[in-house]
Amino acid sequence: MPELPEVETIARVLRQGAPGQPAVAGRHILGARLLWDRSLATPSPAEFTTRLEQQVIEDIGRRGKFLTFRLSRDWLLFHLRMSGDLVVRPLATAPEPHDRLILALEGDIALAFNDARKFGRVWLVDEVDSVLSGLGPEPLDDSFTADDLFGRLHTTRRQLKPLLLDQTFIAGLGNIYVDEALNLARLHPLTISNSLTLDQAGDLLASIRTVLSDGIRRNGASIDWVYRGGDFQNYFRVYQRTGLPCPECGTPIARITVGQRGTHYCPHCQPWE
Q1: Which among 4, 229, 243, 263 is most buried, taking Cβ atoms within 10 Å?
Q2: What's the CA gap between 171 and 164, in Å, rounded?
Q3: Which residues contact 86 (CB under 8 A, 6 or more apart)?
């Protein structure tokens, strides 16, 4: 599943363009072709296509793992889930087998929502809070401090790994970046949240920001799904490195299952106390 750095990269490319790919921000939507109705969470297919037509894509951003398109009257939101992607093509290109939605845009280009596993969802709403209000704070937001994280950690008694994956606790983190951040902070994935000191909370927040920023700088990680262009997978410390040496101490990386998620850590650098 794409996580914060991958979604941020997609938003940036769609907003600004990239070599060989024009930007879609600033373009009128000429029409919408919904190829699988269940990709649409709200509104009805008929209302969706009618409301979208002739709106302008004014800006493209991200909230947690959601892509947010600010239109001239509404908001268009995408959650890519396991296999979703947004692809810009010439308008005359025939639909591909896993296309679920195609937007015709001015300039003879199309924006296709391609989703092989059909878990992704699309929303067209007049305000974003109807979908995004339950998300936790953005980990890269300067207003989110170590004190804030410490306070949130101490409102519950949960294992760190599943807690950090909870999008209502912090928005945008997934399996890759939680494993990487916990390793960098030298915290075991099973550590109970309300046992952390303020200093440990500060180290954890700094580690989260480091791995997310590195992921964004490297255009995300290209594993597990149809994602193009990132190379952060070449710099993993622990994720999917079971049995390989820890970059800090050389101890073989271990893998356990926490909350039904494969979890990677260094037994020496992240001791279970």
Answers
A1: 4
A2: 9
A3: 10, 14, 67, 78, 80, 111, 112, 113, 114
Residue 249 lies in a domain: yes
Torsions phi, psi for 220 (to 5 deg): 85, -175
Rounded CA-CA distance 268/4 in Å is 28
Q: Model-level pTM?
A: 0.94
Same domain, 77 and 127: yes
Host domain of residue 38: 4-132
**Going residue by residue through the chain (273 aa), what tens digit of pLDDT does each one get?**
789 999 999 999 999 998 888 999 999 999 999 999 999 999 999 999 999 999 999 999 999 999 999 999 999 999 999 889 999 999 999 999 999 999 999 999 999 999 999 999 999 999 999 999 999 999 999 999 999 999 999 999 999 999 999 999 999 999 999 999 999 999 999 999 999 999 999 999 999 999 999 999 999 888 755 556 688 999 999 999 999 999 999 999 999 999 899 999 999 999 987
In terms of domains, do 100 and 214 share one? no
> Any idea which residue has 């890759």 for tokens?
176
Distance CA 145, CA 123 (A): 31
* Most distant CA atoms of the chain, gap in Å: 60
